[in-house]
Design a protein that fits this description.
181 residues; 3 helices; globular
C-alpha cells in the first residue's frame, strides 16, 4: 500500500490558515466581550447602580447597591427570606425569575407568576444542569434561605450556553424556595 505524503509547503499553508482562523475568532470574541463590558457599564450608569467591593456587613443592601463578586456577578439581596435553615448541596431549588437585556429597548422574559408560567424552574443546588447557570448557582448560595429574593446582572460567561455563545449579558430578578433533601 502506497503512503501519501503532503508536500512541506502544503503542511505550512494548512498551519498558517488554522492559526489565522483561530486569531480571527479570538479577535471577534475579544471585540464582543469589550462591547458586553461597555453595555454592562452603561446599564449600571443608566440605572444609577452603586457597585460595592464587598457585601454590606449587615447584609442589607440599599435600593440600587450591588456587590461585584470575584466571578463577575453583580448581586443584590432584596429580601433575606425566611427560616434559619440554609441551603445545602443537592437541595432542590424552585426558582421564579424575570430576565431582561441591558439595552434600553429590551424585552422581558418572565417566569414570575403562575399566570406567566404554570410551573417554576427547578434544579439541584451545586449540581450543574441545563436548568441553571453558573450565575444562578452562585446567587442561590448568597441567598441561602427559603423565599429569598435577589437581583443580578449576569455577564455572558456566567449565563446559559446560548448567552455565552452570543456574548449577551442579562439582568435578572429571582425568588427561590428550597426543598431540603
Amino acid at each position: 500500500m502506497k503512503q501519501m505524503h503532503l508536500p512541506l509547503f502544503m503542511i505550512a499553508a494548512i498551519a498558517v490558515l488554522t492559526i489565522t482562523g483561530c486569531k480571527d475568532r479570538d479577535s471577534v470574541y475579544s471585540v464582543q466581550r469589550k462591547a458586553e463590558k461597555k453595555l454592562i457599564e452603561e446599564y449600571i450608569k443608566r440605572e444609577n447602580i452603586k457597585v460595592l467591593n464587598e457585601f454590606p456587613a449587615d447584609n442589607q443592601f440599599a435600593d440600587n447597591e450591588y456587590v461585584l463578586t470575584e466571578s463577575g456577578l453583580y448581586f443584590q439581596l432584596v429580601d433575606e427570606g425566611t427560616g434559619t435553615d440554609t441551603i445545602a448541596y443537592n437541595d432542590k431549588v424552585i426558582l421564579r425569575y424575570k430576565r431582561w437585556g441591558l439595552n434600553s429597548y429590551s424585552d422581558t422574559i418572565s417566569y414570575w407568576t403562575t399566570d406567566e408560567s404554570a410551573y417554576p424552574l427547578t434544579f439541584q443546588y451545586g449540581i450543574s444542569s441545563d436548568y441553571s447557570c453558573e450565575a444562578w448557582q452562585e446567587a442561590v448560595g448568597y441567598m441561602k434561605r427559603n423565599n429569598s429574593h435577589a437581583k443580578l446582572i449576569v455577564e455572558s460567561k456566567l449565563g446559559f450556553s446560548d448567552d455565552e455563545n452570543s456574548v449577551t449579558p442579562y439582568a435578572y430578578e429571582i425568588k427561590i424556595k428550597i426543598q431540603k433533601n
